Every structure is written in C-alpha cells, then in structure tokens.
C-alpha cells in the first residue's frame, strides 16, 4: 500500500468568481485545469524520488471564495494508478498522476507542496489574511485504479485566540445534506463550516513535545456497533513518532517528523471514516487543535487495529505555515537586496576561548522572546532536514524567522543545524550524499544558498551517526561545504560523537581529518546512557553523562580520545546537558548506579526531564541527592523514582573540565531546558546558563536589558541608575536604619551623616488597589531634601506589625496576577518619582495560605525593580513559629528574589503572638533561650537554608514594659498584668527609658543565657537594650558572617542626647563601631549641644585661647564639612575644633 498523506489547507479569502477554464495554473508544468465528464477538474503530475516511493505526501492549497457553500466533499483527490503501477512509474523515472475534483468557481489552486516543500505557487502578497482559516485532511488511499478519499472533514481554526475553544451549546442537532441528524456536544468541530452554532477550535500555540500527552478526538468513523455516520468522541494518549516507530515495524514506514501517534485505552482508537478528525488538547479553559487523523493499521480480519497506534499529522509542525506563510513563500525577486558585508572566515583566527554554543529546539514558542544578550556566543537552531538531492529543507524549520528577526537583540551568531537524532530520513540521505561527489557539491551549494537566503552565520552538520562505510564520504562532504562557506564568511561546525563505540577506533570516525575541514567540533558529551544507545549499560541505572567512568566511556575519556588523535583542543566544545534521565526502580531499596529499573518508565515523556521540570525537586527534602566520587554528576531518588540530573555544581565541574583541557568552550544542549522563566525562583532567569558563563569567565548577571531599548530620560536632580547586580552588593558591615516619620516629629533635623548605609522610611501604606499612600508626606519630603547630607541610600518600607490595612491589602493583591502586576508597577513608579533606592516589603506575617502568593508578588516586583536599578528587601520572621515551613515565609525562594533578608531578631515575645510565653515576663529579644526560640537560634535556622551574607540582623532600640502582678516576683516568667501591654508605655523607646539606667531606684539584671537585660522598680518590669547588649548582638553578626545590622528604629535612639551620653545616637554609634564602621561624635555642624555647666563653657574658652592659631588647619582635617569654616562664626570654629582635640586626647 502506498501511504500518501494529503492535507488540504483552505484559506478563507475574497476571490472574484471566474470560470476554471480561464484560471491560470500556478505551475503549468505539473498542474493543468481541464474537464472530466463535463466537470471542472485538475490534472496533477508530480515526480517522486525513488527514496520516497513508499512515504511521500502531496499538499494542495486553495483560495476559497468567502461565500462558497463548501461541503464535506468540496475537494476530492484521485490517484490514477494502483500500488504496483506507482512503484513501476517511480522506478522508471515517470511522474505520478492525480485527478483533482473540486467546486470550480469556489476554489482556485494556490500552492502545491511535495513532502512539505513548495514545488509551485502563486505569491500571496495580494491575498487577504484573516483570523479564521479552514483545515481538512483526508486519507487513506487504498491500492486501486481509482481511489477517492471517502471522508475529508473541514473545521475552523481561530489563529487569533480571540473567541475559540469554548463550548457554546451542549447539544446541537442538524443534518448534513439532508441525510442524517447528528447530536453533537463538541461545537468547535465545524463539519458544516458556516453553521452559526459552531465555535472555532484554537490553533496550537504551545510546546511541541507530545510524548504521553492526553487529548480527545472527535470524528465520524466506524465503531464496533455501526458504520461511520454518527459523531463520536474518545480520549487518547499521544506518543512521538520515534516511540511510535519502535512499537511496530509497519508504523515505522508511516511516520516522520511531521507526525505523531495516539491510541485510546483498552483497544480503542480512530477507525475508517475518522480521517481528518481533530485531536484536541485542553490547555486551561480552551481546546486547541494539535493533530488530524491520518492513517493506521489493519488486523488479520481487515478491521481497524486499535491495539496499535494511529498516525496523526502534527499541526504543531504547520503553525507558522498556516499563520505566517509569507515569510517562506514570497518570490525570490520580491526579497530586498542585501549588501554582502561578510569577511572570509580564516579558521586560524577564530576565537577559541570562552565560547558558549547554545542549541535550541526551533519549535519552542516562548524561548525566542526570552533569550537575553550575552548568554550565547552562537545560537544553533535545530534541526533542518536534507532531501536525497542534497537540498536543505530550511522552510521546514518553522520558526527560523522568529530567531532571525530578533538576531540583533541576541548579540549572537545564528547557525542552522542539520539532521539530528530522530530524523531518520535525513540520516539516510546523508549517507547517500556522502557517497556521491555530485551530491556532495550540491549539498555544499545548498549550504551556501541557505546561509545567504536567511542571513545565517553558518551551518552545523549533526549526523547521528555515520556508519563505517560513510566515514570517508563524511570528511569529503564537510570539505566541500567548508570550501564554499568559509570564503563567503560562513562557519561550518559538526556534532562530534562522544561514546567510545561511535568515536573509538572501531567506529572508523576520522576525527583528525574532520577537525581540518570544520571550524568547530561540538562534542555530544551531554548524552551517554539512553535506552536506544548501542552502548547502553544493560538495563542498569547510570549517570546520563558521567564525567569519569570505570568503563572509560565518559566525558573526560571522550576529550582524551579526540585530543590524542590530533584534534587541537581549541577546535572542541564540550557538550553540557540541561536535562536528566528519569527511571522507575524495580526495587526501591536498590538505588546505586547499575541497579535494575523498570523499562516502561523509559517511554514516559518525563524520561528526559529538562532542568526546569526537575529543579523544583532540588530543595525538596523528600528527595535524597547523591554525588558519586567517580562520575561526579549527581543523581537523586525518592521511593521508586531515580533521576540522573544536572545542577549548579555539576555544570561548573563540566566547565572546569573544558578549562582544564583548554577547549574552545562549551555546547549547551539545550537552551530552552534551562529555567528561563525562573519557575524555581532562583536569583533570576537562566540560572544554569549564568553559572556556566560566569565559570567560563564571561560575566553574566541578572541585567537582562535589551540594548536596543530606548534609555529612559533621567529627571533633573535624580541619579542615573544601573541594574542591580545582586552578587556585587556589599555584604559586610551594612547598617540599615529604620525611621518612623510621625506627625510633628522633628527627628529629621537631628539626623547626621555616616550613621547608616541605608535609611528605610516607615511612612507608607498600601490600599486594596495596590496604591501606595505616603503618610506624613511633609516630613517624608523634608527628609528626602536633606539626602545629600546623609550619604545613605533611602528605601521605602511597605507594611509593618501595626499596619493591618497594608497586611489586608497584601492578602488581596498577592493571589491575583493582574493586581500583582499593577502593584509592582506602582512600586517602580514611586521609586522613580521620589528618586528612592528601593522598596522594603514588611508583611508581618502571612500564613500558609499566602505562601505561594507572597513569592509571586515579590517575584513580580523584583522583575521590575532590579533591571531599573532599585533594591528589593524583605522582612523575615525570626520566631520558630512564623519561620517554620508550615507558615507563609519561604526562606529559600525569598532569598533568591530579594537583595537582603531582614531577620526580625528584635521581637520575639508579645502578648498576642502565637509564640508568646503564656503570660509571663520575658526578654523582648533574647540572644539565647531554653526554648530555643531566640536570636541565635533564628540565625542558625536561616543559614542552614540561605547564604549568611544575605541576612541583616534586626536590633531593637526599644523594650517591653509590663506591670507585675506581684512586685516581689521579678524573675523572667513572672506573671504580669495583660492590660499594661496595651498602653503607650508598653513599648518604650531607648530615648524614653535611658534616663532610668543611671537611676539607682531601678534594679538592672543581666541574665547569663538571654544576655539582654531587664530592670524593675516597684511593680514595673522592663526588658530593654543598651550599649552593652547591642554590642553582644553585633558579635552574633560577626560570628555568623552576616551582612550587617538593621536598627529598629533609629528615631528611638537618644538622638538629642537628653540622657547626656558622650554624644547623640549612643546605640547607633556603638553598633557601627562594633562592626568596624568608625563613627565618633563629630557629626557635622548641625549638632545641638546642651553644655553641662558653666565650668565646661570655661574649658571651651580656654581651649580656644590655646589653639586659636591652629583652628583652621585642624578644622580642615576633621571632615569635608569643615571646608566651609572660613564663612562660619569664630564660636562655631572653636566648637568643632574642641571636639576634634578631645577625640585625639581620648
């Protein structure tokens, strides 16, 4: 049986009605209009290559009048010969003939394709385009003198995704040709095209991977109860053509890269009459067309063999052809002339260090828009096929133009890769080409033509794998291609076999000769152990791509083989996998390499999961990770699941190997398998790619800004910003000062420089719409106006423990993507408006319900702030209750999103907290505690999960004041009066209680365990902090190498020095000095001093007399602020100099 798969794509367009006899044929040499029994027909004669005698397809494209009354049989195709006649004609070099019956006035032939290649056609420039198109398929053709497709179904597709895929009516009753009634609850199947009750199906717009995908077919075919006629539906599971071909030798002759297969449960599947039926997949709330029924097998009783797979034409392979065909069908003479500015390739002058060659599956719909500048030196689009004549079928690479259109943005060369592991036809054709001098020259010319036509930068031959007789011809084929490509400015690379059976001496691979006729050899060191490998480990588990191995079949062994045979290391790139291998164990207790697995798992689509598929498991403690010493690359297991995988450490190990042997760089297989959307919440997108680039010495950070984007104008007075590079931030001795700007608060005038690296303002709320409302805007703007004096970055904090309104808003905003996006945009806008340096989110505290929502909200904010140059920080709970995994703060993922984590180590015990001690007095923030709920315990919990230098430890500048129930019971844990917590005195600031510290009526106790002190007088009991306790907290920062301190709050320090310390801000100065940030009492010229006595004034006068002649010189040494001394009164000059001298004396 000759398997001819015919797809007719009928494009809706407006066409003047004309007689078929007056219509010009698009290609008179193979197609002519005529008459047959008085009816309009077409006669098609087409030559079939001998290599495709049993596997070819003819595709006709018609223009359709918009008001044409089309029916199921608007087009019929008749093959004029039986099977044996077709074979004889092809073998003798004669054409195969068809008769095309069609409704003449309604249809006009536009294009003809043979096996996907345009063989003739009318330019579509003047053809109108629309969102609704019609697709039909008919098959199968049986041997006979006259064969007509009995059933060919028409149905609508909506390529705009505007109104498609939804169910409009549950049951529809209508008739076809008045012959029968049909009950239908799948309204997107439009057998009657213009029926008003139909909703078009959506055109496929997602992944190409089809392995094990569930879908539904709706068609009219035969059932076990009746002949075809009634519409039926059936749920199926799909598999790739590769899997299908392995399942049955007859199916192997029916499938190709443009097909997939499917079958239903318990021996069910499509049957006769179902040809053209729609295979639909549900994505979200819509249904999408993925395939159309093509052909299947018969059993011994000549019945449909539903036990085996049925073949479908894969709509995913035709998406661009349907939606954007002008790109490939436009006449050559209509293309704009390009000026050839390429310089010849001189192989010896190519860059042979730090190269990153990224392979990308061309079907991936999203990756084209997500690739960022600097990720790759070259981008390889795989794969194009090659016909038996040596011609590259570049038009079949459906999204090639998507990559080419964005080429300036990628800042990378683009190479077209030919062949691949699953294109058996191209593999066979390569063998034929390699053996023929004439075809080798034709292939070389096709390589050059394709590069020029598509403005590519070169060709990659990815022949998996040449047989022993092909090896000599392979070298010559590459030689011919390089002879044409390099002088014209185009590269030639090849894929180099890695395993010892295919690259060892027994393979016959001419490694040294190939290196001389190519520019680079990209080693396939990303894949050693798959179920189809001839070097398979015999049924036992193995590492996908071991760096070393006992059987000497590993990455390093491959490198040695190539280099030992004379290949210059600078010609080689090392293949790095972005995927793993996933098996099911036969015995879950046998998990070591070599243990038996269940073969069935190999057929699962997840058998080779991408990094973005399994990265979520890496932080899941239910999986056990093992790093073998010899193989280096890790594996993980859980129950019966076993995955050989790659992570940050393993890809770095592979880069180190490339550097060790001085290779040209690395080959990435393949880019779309990285976590390009950051679903696993790393620092930013493409985490593995960034790791690889940085290890190679190519600096790649989270700055993914399109260099072609217009730079935003900087407002007058605002600072120019560059994207935040998290790894470049200072992570030592940082001081974040939180400030509350209350009404009538005169704190701003006391604020001095050098106290803080960052000032975080607690002066805003967020409403339910995500709007940020500045409270006390007068004080807010007043502080911003004095910014040059502070030399500090300024952040705006949103939310706090007492801000219930903002907490409620976060709960409303975070679950909804649209609200999160709007809120994120507002965060960015307010940073720009006030020239802030970032946003701090202080959600205190979300529970488990909002865990994922919180992460999503922070991620959305980070995506806008980081590239624009603004910081994002977050407040993190310290208590064991709120920081536990069962609550709403995801420590690991939050650290990957934000620049600093503010660990709220300033507050552990309040009366309404779930972690309260149950009514007894307690230290507000104990450094240690019997219940292990203390500052040091919190630090230890966090650094087990995230880097210590991401953490800022919060230090309290306030205490807890209780009224004791019994003034004679003053120990920690003594009962207190609950109502006292609610008074304004319940949280006294340091500047409120510091006057008690030198008052002997207050008894001070410093517990050895908790470290932080408390004091009591009568029935008053205060847990507090002072200079000594804050220094003890800083010691924890140094001990655990945290990033710094968070002062909560700066306005609670003794900023006016009313308690008569050495000078103002005693706690802040103590923390800075303990951290190593030298801050003394010289705060500038605006310090307000209250002289302690007339005697002190006399001392100042005496100092003035003694040093008057040196005042100017000494003043110049104090600080930059004293450079204006000449314009200041003598009294002020003496004042500054006096403190300078005291500092040096002390």
From TrEMBL:
| Limits of the Peptidase S1 domain | 90-327
Q: Which GO terms describe its biological process?
A: carbohydrate metabolic process; chitin catabolic process; proteolysis
Q: Give TM regions.
A: 1124-1145
Signal peptide from the UniProt entry: 1-20
Q: Name one Pfam family in it.
A: Glyco_hydro_18
Q: SUPFAM superfamilies given for it?
A: (Trans)glycosidases, Chitinase insertion domain, Trypsin-like serine proteases
Any single Gene Ontology cellular-component annotation: extracellular region
Domain GH18, by residue range, is 354-699, 733-1078
Q: Which domain of life is it from?
A: Eukaryota
- Cited InterPro entries: Chitinase_II/V-like_cat, Chitinase_insertion_sf, GH, Glyco_hydro18_cat, Glycosyl_Hydrlase_18, Peptidase_S1_PA, Peptidase_S1_PA_chymotrypsin, Trypsin_dom
GO MF annotations for this entry? chitin binding; chitinase activity; serine-type endopeptidase activity
Keywords of the record, alphabetical order, are: Membrane, Signal, Transmembrane, Transmembrane helix
PANTHER family xrefs: CHITINASE, CHITINASE 5
Task: Name the family the entry cites.
Answer: Belongs to the peptidase S1 family. CLIP subfamily.
What protein name is recorded for this chain? CSON003228 protein
């Amino acid at each position: 049986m000759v398997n001819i798969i015919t797809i007719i794509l009928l494009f809706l367009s407006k066409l003047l009605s004309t007689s078929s006899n007056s219509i010009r044929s698009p290609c008179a040499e193979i197609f002519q209009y005529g008459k047959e029994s008085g009816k309009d027909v077409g006669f098609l004669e087409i030559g079939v290559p001998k290599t495709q005698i049993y596997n070819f397809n003819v595709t006709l494209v018609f223009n359709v009048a918009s008001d044409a009354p089309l029916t199921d049989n608007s087009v019929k195709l008749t093959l004029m010969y039986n099977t044996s006649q077709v074979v004889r004609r092809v073998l003798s070099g004669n054409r195969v003939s068809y008769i095309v019956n069609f409704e003449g006035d309604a249809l006009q032939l536009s294009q003809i394709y043979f096996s996907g290649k345009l063989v003739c056609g009318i330019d579509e420039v003047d053809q109108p385009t629309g969102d609704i198109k019609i697709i039909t398929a008919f098959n199968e053709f049986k041997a006979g003198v006259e064969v007509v497709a009995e059933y060919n179904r028409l149905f609508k597709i909506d390529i705009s995704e505007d109104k498609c895929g939804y169910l409009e009516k549950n049951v529809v009753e209508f008739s076809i040709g008045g012959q029968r009634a049909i009950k239908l609850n799948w309204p997107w199947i439009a057998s009657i095209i213009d029926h008003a009750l139909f909703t078009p199906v959506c055109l496929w717009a997602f992944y190409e991977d089809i392995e094990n995908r569930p879908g539904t077919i709706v068609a009219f075919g035969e059932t076990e109860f009746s002949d075809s006629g009634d519409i039926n539906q059936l749920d199926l599971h799909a598999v790739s053509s590769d899997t299908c071909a392995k399942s049955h030798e007859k199916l192997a002759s029916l499938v190709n890269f443009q097909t997939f297969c499917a079958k239903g449960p318990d021996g069910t599947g499509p049957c006769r009459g179902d040809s053209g039926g729609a295979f639909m997949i549900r994505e979200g709330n819509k249904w999408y067309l993925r395939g159309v029924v093509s052909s299947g097998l018969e059993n011994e009783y000549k019945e449909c063999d539903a036990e085996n797979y049925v073949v479908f034409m894969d709509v995913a392979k035709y998406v661009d052809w349907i939606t954007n065909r002008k790109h490939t069908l436009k006449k050559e003479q209509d293309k704009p002339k390009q000026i050839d500015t390429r310089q010849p390739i001189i192989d010896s002058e190519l860059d042979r260090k730090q190269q990153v060659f990224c392979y990308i599956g061309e079907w991936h719909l999203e990756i084209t828009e997500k690739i960022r500048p600097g990720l790759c030196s070259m981008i390889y689009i795989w794969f194009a096929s090659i016909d038996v004549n040596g011609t590259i079928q570049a038009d079949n690479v459906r999204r090639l133009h998507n990559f080419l259109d964005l080429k300036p943005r990628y800042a990378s060369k683009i190479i077209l890769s030919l062949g691949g592991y699953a294109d058996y036809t191209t593999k066979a054709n390569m063998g034929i080409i390699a053996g023929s001098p004439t075809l080798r020259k034709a292939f070389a010319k096709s390589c050059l033509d394709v590069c020029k036509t598509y403005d590519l930068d070169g060709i990659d031959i990815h022949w998996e794998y040449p047989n022993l007789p092909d090896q000599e011809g392979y070298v010559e084929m590459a030689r011919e291609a390089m002879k044409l490509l390099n002088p014209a400015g185009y590269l030639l690379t090849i894929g180099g076999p890695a395993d010892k059976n295919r690259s060892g001496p027994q393979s016959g691979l001419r490694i040294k000769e190939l290196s001389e006729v190519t520019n680079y050899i990209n080693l396939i060191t990303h894949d050693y152990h798959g179920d189809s490998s001839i070097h398979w480990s015999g049924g036992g588990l193995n590492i996908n791509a071991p760096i070393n191995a006992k059987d000497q079949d590993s990455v390093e062994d491959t490198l040695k083989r190539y280099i030992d045979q004379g290949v210059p290391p600078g010609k080689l790139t090392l293949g790095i996998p972005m995927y793993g291998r996933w098996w099911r164990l036969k015995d879950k207790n046998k998990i070591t390499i070599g243990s038996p697995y269940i073969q069935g798992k190999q057929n699962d689509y997840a058998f080779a999961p991408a990094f973005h598929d399994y990265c979520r498991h890496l932080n899941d403690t239910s999986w056990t990770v093992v790093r073998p010493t010899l193989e280096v690359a890790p594996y993980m297991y859980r129950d019966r699941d076993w995955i050989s995988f790659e992570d940050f450490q393993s890809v770095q190990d592979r880069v180190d190997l490339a550097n060790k042997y001085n290779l040209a760089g690395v080959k990435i297989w393949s880019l779309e398998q990285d976590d390009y959307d950051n679903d696993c919440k790393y620092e930013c997108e493409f985490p593995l790619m960034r790791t690889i680039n940085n290890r190679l010495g190519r600096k790649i950070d989270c700055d993914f800004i399109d260099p072609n984007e217009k730079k935003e104008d900087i407002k007058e007075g605002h600072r120019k910003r560059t994207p935040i590079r998290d790894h470049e931030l200072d992570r030592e001795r940082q001081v974040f000062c939180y400030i509350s700007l209350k009404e009538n608060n005169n704190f701003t005038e006391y604020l001095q420089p050098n106290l803080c690296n960052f000032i975080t303002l607690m002066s805003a709320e967020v409403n339910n719409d995500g709007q940020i409302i500045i409270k006390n805007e007068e004080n807010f703007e007043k502080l911003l106006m004095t910014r040059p004096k502070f030399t500090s970055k300024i952040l705006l904090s949103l939310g706090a423990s007492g801000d219930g309104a903002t907490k409620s808003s976060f709960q409303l905003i975070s679950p909804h993507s649209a609200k999160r996006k709007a809120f994120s945009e507002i965060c960015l806008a307010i940073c720009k408006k006030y020239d802030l340096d970032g946003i701090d989110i202080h959600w205190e505290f979300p529970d488990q319900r909002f865990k994922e929502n919180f992460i999503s909200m922070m991620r959305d904010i980070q995506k806008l702030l980081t590239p624009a140059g603004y910081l994002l920080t977050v407040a993190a709970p310290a208590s064991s209750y709120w920081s536990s995994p069962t609550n709403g703060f995801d420590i690991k993922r939050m650290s990957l999103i934000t620049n600093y984590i503010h660990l709220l180590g300033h507050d552990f015990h309040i009366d309404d907290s779930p972690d309260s001690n149950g009514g007894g007095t307690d230290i507000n923030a104990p450094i240690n505690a019997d219940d292990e709920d203390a500052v040091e315990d919190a630090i230890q919990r966090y650094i087990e999960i995230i880097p210590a230098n991401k953490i800022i430890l919060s230090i309290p500048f306030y205490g807890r004041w209780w009224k004791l129930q019994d003034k004679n019971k003053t120990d920690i844990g003594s009962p207190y009066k609950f109502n006292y917590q609610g008074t304004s005195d319940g949280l006294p600031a340091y500047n409120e209680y510091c006057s008690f510290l030198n008052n002997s009526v207050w008894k001070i106790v410093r517990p050895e365990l908790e470290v932080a002190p408390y004091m009591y007088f009568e029935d008053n009991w205060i847990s507090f902090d002072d200079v000594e306790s804050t220094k003890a907290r800083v010691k924890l920062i140094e001990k655990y190498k945290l990033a710094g301190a968070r002062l909560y709050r700066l306005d609670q320090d003794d900023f006016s020095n009313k308690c008569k310390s050495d000078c103002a801000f005693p706690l802040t100065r103590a923390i800075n000095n303990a951290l190593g940030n030298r801050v003394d009492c010289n705060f500038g010229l605006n310090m307000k001093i209250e002289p302690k006595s007339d005697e002190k004034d006399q001392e100042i006068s005496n100092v003035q007399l003694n040093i008057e002649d040196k005042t100017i010189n000494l003043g110049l040494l104090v600080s930059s602020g004293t450079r204006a001394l000449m314009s200041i009164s003598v009294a002020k000059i003496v004042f500054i100099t006096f403190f300078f001298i005291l500092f040096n004396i002390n």
